[in-house]
UniProtKB/TrEMBL annotation:
It catalyses: (2S,6S)-2,6-diaminopimelate = meso-2,6-diaminopimelate. Keywords: Amino-acid biosynthesis, Cytoplasm, Isomerase, Lysine biosynthesis. GO terms for cellular component: cytosol. Homodimer. This is Diaminopimelate epimerase. It holds the Pfam family DAP_epimerase.
């Protein structure tokens, strides 16, 4: 099986095209084994590039625990670069069908090379039913929650996938992140962003991802931080979101309310997975 490893700010993915993906019997088991950093290839998730009836191509994203997510911001930049450079799409502006709807990445070229990818991420969803969250309130903005004996305030934003944004970075943020991910308030679990605003144009963020744990970056998470920051008058509608793996520029347009994310994507290596390894992984998971 042929796969390509890519990353967006250190948030890393195994990219697999449709004809190769058809060889996989259980994508959940495959994602767990392949993403293992010791016994597998290593990655935060697996991305499948599939044909689409509604857009140029379709993306499916599976976290390293095998769960499927609706959207992935860093992943869609990787997919866009992959698809453009291999001629899977004709134009630098492409449409991608995701479980969160149609998303539109635009390849930004410099000297005919891909410099960055700017993605129209669509409008954020703020209604509690759309997050989803089981609180009887229209929107969840600076809502108190007690986690492991500590009081937090969080703002809930969906970028197709759920995010809980907290304007504080506690020492034990990973422990709190894991507990919030699985809190019963979130029936589909949640990604968690811990934020320190450095100014109205810059924020530092630590991310605990649903289904993957701490990652070096999260594109949808950065978008959720900007939206939550603007809603709480902590950030302007355009800001640099600094993640452990690097920065993303995020803008929430006041014209169409769409969120735009710009950042890089990098190819790391190609791999051929032997039948022997695939069988070993299958046995290991059985
Ligand atoms: N890292 C991604 C988000 C991947 C999915 C997420 N873990 C979820 O389950 O929602 C990003 O860059 O957005």
């Amino acid at each position: 099986m042929h796969l390509v490893k890519m990353h967006g700010l250190g948030n890393d993915f195994l990219i697999i095209e449709d004809h190769e993906a058809q060889k996989i019997t259980s994508i959940k088991d495959f994602a767990i084994s392949a993403c293992d950093r010791h016994f597998g290839v290593g990655g935060d998730g697996v991305i499948l590039i599939l044909p689409s009836q509604k857009a140029d191509i379709r993306m499916r994203i599976f976290n390293s625990d095998g769960s499927e997510a609706e959207m992935c911001g860093n992943g869609i930049r990787c997919l866009a670069k992959y698809a453009y450079e291999r001629g899977l799409v004709p134009d630098p502006i492409l449409t991608v069908e995701t479980e969160a709807g149609i998303i539109i990445p635009e390849i930004i070229l410099e000297d005919e090379k891909v410099k960055s990818i700017r993605v129209d991420m669509g409008q954020p969803r703020l209604e509690s039913g759309e997050i989803p969250i089981t609180l009887d309130k229209e929107r969840i903005i600076q809502e108190p929650i007690e986690i492991l004996g500590k009081a937090f305030y969080f703002t809930a934003v969906s970028m197709g996938n759920p995010h809980a944004v907290i304007f504080e970075i506690p020492d034990q943020w990973q422990t709190y992140g894991e507990a919030i991910e699985k809190h019963p308030l979130f029936p589909r679990k949640t990604n968690v962003e811990f934020v320190r605003c450095l100014s109205s144009n810059q924020a530092e963020v630590k991310v605990w991802e649903r289904g993957a744990g701490p990652t070096l970056a999260c594109g949808t998470g950065a978008c959720a931080v900007l939206v939550a920051g603007a809603l709480n008058q902590k950030l302007n509608r355009k800001a640099e979101i600094r993640l452990p793996g690097g920065s993303l520029t995020i803008e929430w347009s006041s014209k169409n309310q769409h969120v735009y994310m710009e950042g890089p994507a990098q190819e790391v290596f190609h791999a051929e997975l032997s039948e022997e390894v695939y069988e070993l992984w299958t046995l290991h998971r059985a």
